[in-house]
């Protein structure tokens, strides 16, 4: 009998039964007030008169009117460079002990993002809220006694000028609470291995010694790890190694493109739970099994604003125009794309995270990620979000009975005009013209702007199949395997030429 599991499950269910559902909009107002109060004596707080904002009649509106938008380059050059150089009390009280390195999907050069003690506490609280939400997913008591495989970047953080730096998943894993260490796999020793391939091989070697009940990590790297475990032990599916595996916490990117290939590695269905964790904070997580949407965590040190994702407000590089209007949580609408803006307990102020989101349920503050501001495919007026591209690939998988977990494309100029040039990651090669026709037809039916573009400057679709492994090798060659590294879904022509040159060298 799972005595400890029953106790843990009972505590979670009791806590859930006693908790009162908060008002997300009111919680957000309080978060902003707390942020301004705590940072009013910092250099940033004095520059933008946080004291005056706090004394205004409409704090949220005065805040948005007084403080400009910041992308990474702007906030780094004007504020965070001082923090990086050791100056205290710049954009947040004190000095951070950690910096998250993040190149994301936008370039080779790593960003250095402050990670304060307050932010680590915020991430821990968000993780705890996610665990409490498990009471909604009807897990058996013994699930709460199983181990959790957290596949992130190396926890072997580098020291630089007395501060530690690494990817946020490595920083978080290196700061897990002592009581959680008995559940955490692959464990501290393996998690410190820097080389991705060596770390995954070590996981595979030890896999049979663990009783894994849940997985956590970015889908693309999780798939590669699971495949290595299957290959090493010569089994058909992962439940032959981990028979009690019941849940997978996905994050970083949309899970939909990976659903078919991921499920092929399982012996039976498991619960997939989406999360929204970035280098800048833990923003949202799925709390209900009847939806894949994620609930914004609105009472945890992060204040959200939303800018309508419309051409007149978004520059070609993904930045916002100075006059772009921001909405508070009580003013948003369902099924509208917004650019997400955050202010946080790590000294990010009105910061453009680079993601677009849409609300699926305004009252519950539930969202889905629809794309990236820089990867919105609009070179010839097609106006395709990453979300729409994911839908097209899912349709392709269902139509042709194939698995395409990875893809990238570019609106590329050929001799006879612009085409959407797709590279599909699949070890199964099919007729390219037929595949292109399926994608093209789907997008014309699903998106009116794409259909209009097809009647004008956009000539059509070109397709090429490449082995799925090529996408991992590209990430390894350009950045680093594993961790928070994500594949670019949409590339500009210069970057796409680098990709095509790389593929030519590999094949």
Automatic annotation (TrEMBL):
Pfam families (alphabetical): GH3, GH3_C, GH3_M
An example molecular function term from Gene Ontology annotations: acid-amino acid ligase activity
Taxonomic superkingdom: Bacteria
An example Gene Ontology CC term for this record: cytoplasm
Start and end residues of each GH3 middle domain: 297-362
This protein's name: GH3 auxin-responsive promoter
Residues of the GH3 C-terminal domain: 389-493
Protein species of origin: Flagellimonas marinaquae
